[in-house]
Amino acid sequence: MIKKTGTFFIGLLLTLTSFAQEKFTLSGTVKSAASGETLINASVEVTGKAAGTVSNEYGFYSLTLPRGDYDITYSAVGFEPLSTTIRLTGDQVRNVSLPELATDLDSVKVTANTTGRTIRGTQMGVERLTMKEINTIPMLLGERDILKAIQLLPGIKSAGDGNSGFYVRGGSTDQNLILLDEANVYNASHLMGFFSTFNSDIVKDVTVYKGGMPAQYGGRLSSVLDVKMNEGNNQRYAVSGGVGLISAKLNVEGPIQRDRSSFLVSGRRTYADLFLPVFGDSSNRNTRLFFYDVNAKMNYTLGKKDRLYLSGYLGRDVLKLEKQFGMDWGNKTGTLRWNHIFNDRLFSNTSFIYSDFNYNIAINNSNNDLNIFSQIRDLNLKEEVQWYAGSSHALRFGFNSIYHTITPGEITSSGKTSYNNLYLQDRYSWETSAFASDTWKAAKWLNLAFGLRLSSFAIFGPGDFYEVDDAGTVTDTLRYAKGALVKNYWNLEPRIAASFILNNSTSVKASYARNTQNLHLVSNSAANFPTDKWIASTNVIKPELVDIYSVGWYKNLAGSRYELTTEAYYKSFQNQIDYRTGADVYTNDAIETQLLSGIGRAYGLELLLKKKQGRFTGWIGYTLSKTERKIEGINDGQWYNARQDRTHDIAIVTNYQLNKKWNLSANWVYYTGDAVTFPSGKYVIDKQIVFYYTRRNAYRMPAYHRLDLGATRQLKTRRKNTSSELAFSLFNAYGRENAYLITFQQNEDNPDITEAMQTSLFRFVPSISWHFKF
Description:
By secondary structure, the protein is mainly beta. Helix content is about 5%, strand content about 55%. It contains three helices and 51 strands.
């Protein structure tokens, strides 16, 4: 009797448990009703419950809930929210199309995006900007630029006036992973950094991870800039573009097969060189200074569970001075992606990726006839799976395998020059990683994220590799055959983050991450010149490592109309690279002899107050930071300022929708001058003055500040789906002469006096551009 009774209760318990745990999954894709584009980070919320999710990079979402009736709200920035009631008695697929927000100012409440942070989410140090925000920020020469826009965010610092290079939380410019549709962009600058490679008209999403990046990203120490292109309108054909003072662009998109496939083609070119003969002598007719870029994308829906994407980018800069000097450089990328939905909880993306950056220099005068070529080329295979395991867990796992080929430099000459041909050895390496992460809703007040990345960097022959002593002298040369393994570096990169929800409007977060970098940029300047040299880790040059610790406090104010964020970080660097005094890195095959390595540290505090709703929006960002290096052989082995060290950095960005026709904007920036090496003295040799340098980066450039103003005027249109606007801007509105370069020379009247000469680039730069869409 007891045995039967026990069996009955066990069976009843299992039945009740099974019923109580009966759950089903709601999944689908969120799209734009107007264009058919999938929406990234669209919110799927359950009314009255602390449950919900967001769509992934391809618009897919999955939400597991107990059996029952639910009110579900789908929303995305710039779109009308959609609410629906769902009876969940089994797994359901619900695809949703959201209409764009009305243009009536009285009906629009949200006019700015969140920064990518949420109160409950674990991710720290992430920033997101919509193209609407970017397009209203006044820019140099009116060219809307992603890289210039993100430099106005706390923790992200401009590398200089008119420069698209940037520093993130104490990292150097090469420590930023820049991706365009998953393809690595090694030099994201046009015209020596005055413009970026990203045409804002075809960009869908811009996300910056400043630290504690998710496990699927790797290969760089400091940040990830993930840029995704539009997919193309699969509902109707559209043409858009713009004409400015020095550039023009045109974009064409439309359906290949309505609702199933679409295409996008975009082109941009500057034409300032066409006006050079007007402002100079006839020799300017043979001078060329321009860039062009082309973006293209196609996608095709194979069925309910499969979709293919093919995207590519081609960009080139050309600088030619008569027949004496010529230089061209640029990027090529290509990405083929396959999305597959295995079931309502399992999503995968498989990518084949190609990336190429190279430059050519031609010198042809009476004494020399030289050609210089350098290149870095990648072949990349990436697989990523997202598994929505249940209501509390969301997992990602996969692998990434990249084959790098680096041509450091080839110098060829004709018979009329005294130079001999020089071929620096090509370097071959295979960078492979496996990663896994889990986001766990542990409790109503606690969310956790765990991640682990295992990376391998294998270096292969053929080639000569060197052993180097502390003085930088080659002590041995090791010769390897083609395909022979020279060295393999293995590194584990753990990632962990937690968010503690104090109430519906406040949370505290903390995170730790380790990152590894095996490709290094050798550069003597901050300007991201195309001739900067990429090198891979060798048997002597070790992978760079960083440990990042972060803590933050997040608060939504005044009914979420305002967002206040405070984040503090500390970074500990290993194997940081710097030059030996008098280094020659461009013609020396044994580059290990020219470099030193050591440790570094960076720490800081970031504050961001952002107004997200209403006619008046914008943000105030402030960064207090310190960045140092300690390398034996530099400054007597003592801590010294890194080149990117700045104490204070402030940005104020404002936008005001005056009425339906006029939008006004302004931004003001201030930052402490860069650390720089100036001469400490001088002496005379054979009547020639030679400057004497003692301490590296011991001086400061003058502080930098400027005000930019902008206004956009909507023009009348008589046809539906047609828009046109004029954009006006004034860069450096109060004419501040900011120092771009400081050099030293002797006074013409008294050679014993040395003068510091400041070079400034921009004062009062007005611009006007016309943008259209039909």
